[in-house]
Amino acid sequence: MERNSQTGRRRGRQSNVISLRQDAAFFFERGVRYLERNDLRRALKAFRRTVEVEPDNPVNYCNLAGVLSELGDFEASNEVLLHVLRHLDPTMAECQFYLANNYANMGDYETAEEYVLRYLDADPDGEYAQEAVEMLDILMDEFGGGRAYARWQAEQRRKERADAKRDGRHLLEEGQFEAAVEWLERITAQEPENTAAANNLSLAYYYTGQYDRALALAEQVLDAHPNNVHALCNLTVFSAHLGPRDRYHECLSKLRKIFPLHYDHAAKVGTTLGLVGDHEAAYAVFAKLVRLAGDPDPAIVHALAAAAANCGRYATARRWWKTLSQRPGLAEVADHYLKMLDRAERHGQRYMRVSYQYELPIEAQFAKMKERLASGDPAAWRNDPLLRASLYWGLRHGGEDTQRAVIRILAIIADADAEKALRAFLRRQDIAVPQQAAALHALQRMGARGRIELWRDGELVSVRMSDIPKDVILSVDPAWRQVLDRVTEWLREHRKSRYAAEAKRAWVGYLRHAFQRTERAVGKPEVWMAALVYAVLKRHNEPVRQKDVAQWFHVSVSALSKAAGKLSCYFVTMP
Q: Which of the four pLDDT bands, split at 50, 70 and 90, describes residue 238?
């Protein structure tokens, strides 16, 4: 703990009297010694002196409040802490936590709840964050609390609504498209004239595959506001992808004639022209924007280089990517495109098709994504909006293998938007049982709570997450259930049924791990049947040989041994 010191005053009148150091540090050290001896009264006296000697140091007051709390004088302790927050340091978040403790000890649980929430608001990753969360749980579960928490939640919702009104783009920028749809639908219903929210909602519809809604809303905004640049850009992209072609050409013709004075609007026009393949027009926009900007944003410099490459202006593209490669933190992507440019020139390509987004191409992103997924660290790509869009597209339109891969990734991302996407997926009537089970397991892994809607026996039903079987992962692949059923049958036939429950726990544990790691693929079912039987028998010192079990299930000893080794760590350690 940092302490400030002051020079002690001489109190003796005779020249031969030795002056004692009596600054705040001196009394602090005395107070600590008394605390170590559990002499609270003397400790209190010493810490009072620290406040008297150094009245502007909030740490001294916190030490004093701590001793008062230890003595059971919680009201006096609270007065000291409130003095710190009101007059010395309003940002000293730990005072909120100390107040929560004091009020809890006084039996005023609602006020304690308020202060613990204030602490978590002020310092969610602070020194006492874990204790604060535990205290909140106790206050709510054991002392009937929750009223302060409900008020706090209402305030959070109010703040979130205010943020959405100021900038409806934040969810889109974070790649939370499902949440953006839900959020922006509410905003546009409350504020029909909020064209920014309507434009963002049309984009959210497009990113989530709701193409008819995206087109209709873009048309609606443009009808009401014919000069709205964002609506025109959105409709140009949507109609280029979805048609009708006449509408696309009409929008494109209008867009070519526009060069907004607003920097972001001009960038939007240029990017839109590039996205629909009008690279010469895009090049003209970005070249003009770079000239006007003076010190252009790296994304704009890349867009100009990309437009140049798409038009076959390789020298111009090279110059601007080299410029980017010299800026801190930008070399990796710029060097990637410079290498692509070298290859295009070597192979005599007239044009080099390049994304206008300043990032690695999607195929390179997926290669990196696989590496991150294997390492269990998705943080670097969790907030990538383009990758989010590709994931959600795969979940909506991909085959079963693609959907399974996306579900696996969403279970690792495990944020609110990933949960919304999986809940929406479960409401589809066309998904097979294995895909439904995979999504349910992913929600379990994410800690989802409350009710979910899914199709059973031809009707949409609502069920509690707590009612979903813990072993739902067995239904993700028919072979996984087959392994357990055959092992259970084998144990019953050999009068070893007492080991069946343990075998099931180990198998389910392994599958939960394998579901998240592609290198832990579950191959030939017979190998795992043999491995599970051997592992559970060996665990209980049953006389069994790998050779015999391998023959029973018609698999090789080496395959059995390898699989059994992988299963061994999923058995609960015996006392």
A: very high
Domain residue extents for the chain: 24-158, 173-258, 261-359, 362-473, 477-570
Segment (H or E) for 47: helix 40-53
459 has which bridge partners?
Answer: 456
- How many residues are there in the chain? 575
CATH topology classification for 173-258: 1.25.40
Distance, in Å, from the CA atom of 230 to the CA atom of 272, rounded to the nearest integer, reads 10
Residue 462 DSSP SS3 = strand
Q: How many CA atoms lie within 13 A of 262 on its CB side?
A: 7
CB atoms under 10 Å from CB of 417, counted, come to 21
Q: Is 24-158 assigned to CATH 3.40.640.10? A: no
Listed in sequence order, the DSSP H helices in 468-524 are 478-493, 500-516
In whole angstroms, what is the distance from residue 184 CA to residue 204 CA?
9
The CATH fold of domain 477-570: Cyclin A; domain 1 (1.10.472)
Determine contact, residues 385/204, Cβ cutoff 8 Å: no
Closest CA to 99 of 89, 113, 129: 113
| d(C-alpha 368, C-alpha 359), whole Å | 12
Q: Quote the distance between the C-alpha of residue 209 and its chain's center.
A: 22
pLDDT digits (tens, 9 = 90+) for 177-232: 788 888 889 888 988 888 888 999 999 888 888 889 999 999 999 999 998 999 99
Please name the amino acid found at residue 339.
K
pTM of the shown model: 0.44
- Residue whose C-alpha is closest to residue 538's, from 510, 554, 504, 561: 561
The 10 Å Cβ neighbour count of residue 191 is 15
Preceding omega of 244 cis (within 30 degrees of 0): yes
Structure confidence by residue, pLDDT tens digits, 97-125: 889 888 888 888 888 888 888 887 777 66
Q: 3-class SS at 443?
A: helix
Asked, colleague to colleague, whether 173-258 and 477-570 share their fold, the answer is no
Q: What is the DSSP letter of 482?
A: H
Terminus-to-terminus CA distance in the chain, angstroms? 43
Q: Residue 349 and residue 194: Cα distance in Å, rounded?
A: 46
CA dist., res. 319 & res. 334, Å (int): 11
Residue with tokens 């749809």, as numbered in its chain: 181
CA 485 from chain centre, in angstroms, equals 37
Query: Identity (one letter) of the amino acid at 532?
Result: L
